[in-house]
Amino acid sequence: MLALQILVDGFAVSALYGVGAVGFTLIFGVSGVLNLSHGAIMVVAAVTAWATAGGLGFGRYGGAAAGVVAGFVLSFATYLLVVRPIQGSKAIPREEKEIFVLTGTLLWGIMIQEAIAYCFSNTPKTVLPLAPGVMNILGVRTPVNEVLTAVVSWVAIGLLWLLVNRTRGGKALLAASMNPRGLTLLGFEMTSIHRKVWAIYGVLAGIAGVLLGAFLGVSSDNIGTLTASAFSIVVLGGLGSIWGSLLAAYVVGYLETLTAYLVAPSVRTVPVLLLLVLVVYLRPQGLLGRR
Description:
Distance between the termini: 42 Å
Strand content: under 5%
């Protein structure tokens, strides 16, 4: 019975990690940015869903929609206020812009964390579950919201796959991750490509944040951990590899779930960090990375 419980819970956690990490990977693959305010965007989405669903009377679905919109808006603000000014600055040498963007997004995330703690305190907030109740899966009593979390996560990932592989704009994003110079020669404007990818990322981060808030609950103190988890998954899977991130999300999700059940929840991230060190040492490009 415990094995089935781990199997069910691990699948939901991994799917949630996957939808968050895919957006993180997409940003790096297309625009070359490792967004260290990722966890802050997710928490803002969750806190917005929590506040609007209860305090403003939006209800569970209205609050969830407001949370996704908040993730989208904050993501775009991150690009317009932090990333784009640094990338377009003539005062910063080209070879140093990457580290400036890393520092800028890190400080932006800290500012958001402090703002959330000031406005809402750092006590954990739990978003109203999208689907209340309990169901039975192979003899395991599982919250319906947990199943819905996995379903919504995979629907979001599936829609992203269709967008990237079946639309002209999506194929342009894919080409930008492979050969941005060649794409520019074909007449595409990279600024427009970057705006599109940040918009897509914002929606994915918003969805991940709302689902996380309804599944596990969040607080401003979780921001650093969420960013670190996404970064670990992306590095483990291979920077820029969406399929690598999905594979790594399931490795991390199940490893954390096993540790939480068999050892203690407080040390669930330790085996993941040890695995990350091992992979970086033996295969620096990650599980499915090419560079």
